[in-house]
Amino acid sequence: MDYKAEIARVLSEFLPYExxxxxxxxxxxxxxxxxxxxxxxxxxxxxxxxxxxxxxxAGKIQKPPFVEEIKAVAGYLNFRYSSSNFASEVIGKVLxxxxxxxxxxxxxxxxVCIDYSSINIAKPFHIGHLSTTVLGAALxxxxxxxxxxxxxxxxxxxxxxxxxxxxxxxxKWSNREDIERGGVRRLVEIYVKFHQEAExxxxxxxxxxxxxxxxxxxxxxAYALWQWFKEITLKDDLPxxxxxxxxxxxxxxxxxxxxxxxxxxxxxxEKNLLVDSEGARIxxxxxxxxxxxxxxxxxxxxxxRDLAAAxxxxxxxxxxxxxxxxxxxxxxxxxxxxxxxxxxxxxWAKQLEHVAFGMxxxxxxxxxxxxxxxxxxxxxxxxxxxxxxxxxHEKSPHLANATDVAxxxxxxxxxxxxLINNRxxxxxxKYDKILNFDGETCPYVQYTHARCLSVLGKAGEVDLSxxxxxxxxxxxxxxxxxxxxxxxxxxxEAADKNEPSFITRHVVDLAKLYNKFYFDNKIxxxxxxxxxxRLALTRAVATVIENGFAIIGIRLPDQM
Length: 560
Ligand code: ARG
Description:
The protein is α/β, with parallel strands linked by helices.
């Protein structure tokens, strides 16, 4: 039963159901009740003070059987659920649905394209790609859990003049064997060397331009090299996605749109939106810099590709939303070309959304591909795992599969660091902070989950039908039940705001509550009925931690 909906139905005698439903929220203080309706927003229309409204309603409404008490307090109408009913209802539902608890079919038949990670060929997969990769993947799983047809797209940066430079560098300072041995790191090295050498020998730039022109013209040697650079890069990068549990449905990168841009340019011309600016073709926009579509030398740009890609995705997937999980540095870029789509007269421009996020700063300092001091994500993962292993050796020297657990803890902690706070916040990445077992951290949640499994394991087969849910009447137990109940609605809110951190935060709070519960209450040695209720609660907590972390993309060890 949906308690909130039931209460809204009871209130619908006095105000529209939808309005009542949207006003109902959890009270600030659990001592006041389980759900409340602030009456402030009704005051104007009702021509009464919120205090009077709350009191009037408290006197008039029919108390449904699952409600124990209705009370007006300072303009709030508070409802307290009969705790044993509420607990048995909520826990029963979590246990019945298991891994499906929280899932729905709300998005059935609707496509959501998600453009994330979108790394660059022959460039480092660096720490700056962490957020887009794990945020995008979490959104992908979240939308899937809500029944949407999520489409994960890695819009590879696989086109641009840099490939001319790389081909020159390859011919001058490398060879097939060298690259096969050194992989993408070696490609980056020779690319960096190109920039150093070109400062002294500017004619290298002419050679590079020439090679890029050949590539654009489809020259077979240039094309084969480019294709091979892509293979080398992906061969090194795909295992990182594997470790992070990240998947894509499409790797259609920038080059995929080479033959799809002209149609967009033609349409812009037809609609008289292109104007000449010193030989370049641009779209003028209100309140911001114009969007350049074609450069003076005839070359297309990043924005031109994004436009072509959006049209392709609309046609191919018929999305209801197309998300771009890209750092806030690119705010202007997205605002510009979204406006271009709008000016072309397509109302689906409003289905395009830039899901922006903050920067990661590491203890190691700044990073730039050209100078060659980028911090590679795989190095960060390895270091986190290594540190996790050291902590595990110290804390649990006898743990079986310590290396597997260290991988889950280390990689999980890195993912967690990008998904615990609102995405727009900058991240200050510190190994000791993310791997602390006692903070609001990944290992803390993993440890709590392992604790739940351990309690359940010790209990063995238990007949939960004998559970006495009225014993879950203390504040912490009630808080836990409320947190469990809130989870499905929270997933909807997280999707609505494209904010997976809501889920991470919820799971952390639930873990904290459970630990308090665990220290305050006997579980295995509790009297009959109480023991079963506490075990059922434990099972339900483990389930919601599992379901939440499955969306966030963090694995949970059985033992720690
Ligand atoms: N490859 C780009 C970068 O590393 C990100 C691409 C984002 N996606 C897009 N459709 N523009 O900055």
